[in-house]
Each structure stands twice: as C-alpha cells, then as structure tokens.
Amino acid sequence: MAKKKNSKIAPLVESTPVPEATPTTTEPIVSKDSESPHFDVAQTIYGTTKDIWAWGKTVPVLSSILTLTECTTAKVLDVTVHMDLPSIDQDVVVPHAKLLDDGVITPVICKIWEIVGPAVGKGDEMIVKPFVGGVVPRILGPLGLLEGEKKKVVVVEEKKNVIDGSDNPEVVPVALN
Questions:
Q1: pTM above 0.70?
Q2: How far is residue 140's CA from residue 132's CA, in Å, rounded to a whole number?
C-alpha cells in the first residue's frame, strides 16, 4: 500500500532569547598557579591504605577477618549516620584529605624546604663538588674508568718456574706417615 504524503507544513517557531546566567556565589574565582607544589600526602596515604586493604582481602588467612570487619563497619555506619562506605569515602574522606593536604601538609613542606633548601645548595658546593672533582678521579683513574684520562700500560714480566722444561710443575710424591 502506498502512503500518502502529508502536505501540511509545521509553522515556524521563533526562539526567545535566554537571559545570561549570573553567578550566585560571592566567592572570588581563584585560578590555581600551576607552579605551586602539590604533594598530596594524605590522599596518597589513604589510597595506599585502601590498596593494602584490597590486597589483604585476597590473602586467604586475612580475607575472612577483613570481610567481617568491613561488614561490621558498614552496618554500624548505616545505623548511626545512615551512610554506606563508598559514599563516606567519596563525600567525607577524600574531600577532607584534600583539605588537609592543601591547608596543612603542603604549606608545612614548603616552609621546611625554604629552610633546608639553601643548606642543600651549600652542601652541594662544599661536599659533592670537591668529592666528585677530587676523590672520584683518584679512585677511577687507575682503574681506567675515566674517559678523559690517558691509559697507562704496565708491562709485567711473567716468571715461569720450569723444572723440566714444561709448563706444568713437577709433582713429587710425599710419604704420609
């Protein structure tokens, strides 16, 4: 059966302009400096702890204990705060670990590095450069491990103990009493 073509054309619809959205927050937008250090110590420790826990669940001796502990913890959290472990992980622990990293640990590491950094530079000038420039060539030079040094050839004469003209020494039987 042949279908009839619909000759009706839909009327044109004009679009209405959408007003521009204005930000509702009053906090200033701060762009993070790409050169500022991020150590993420707390986040790394937390992630590693979770990985060790997951590995421990594969060990037959530990798997039943860890599973029992995890189920008990999940039940207690469900009864007390009405949250499960993945939501606590996502909504509570990870953001707080990031805040701990950004607010406490990274500034402390930066301040310690400001104090220790100049001493490292002085140590390089006072200890490493003299050692590499003086002691290392004296040790590696005679062994021929330095490329810039000329190799000294020492000729050693071989002394042969020849009794009967052969290279093998004479075997003399000794009486054992």
A1: no
A2: 11
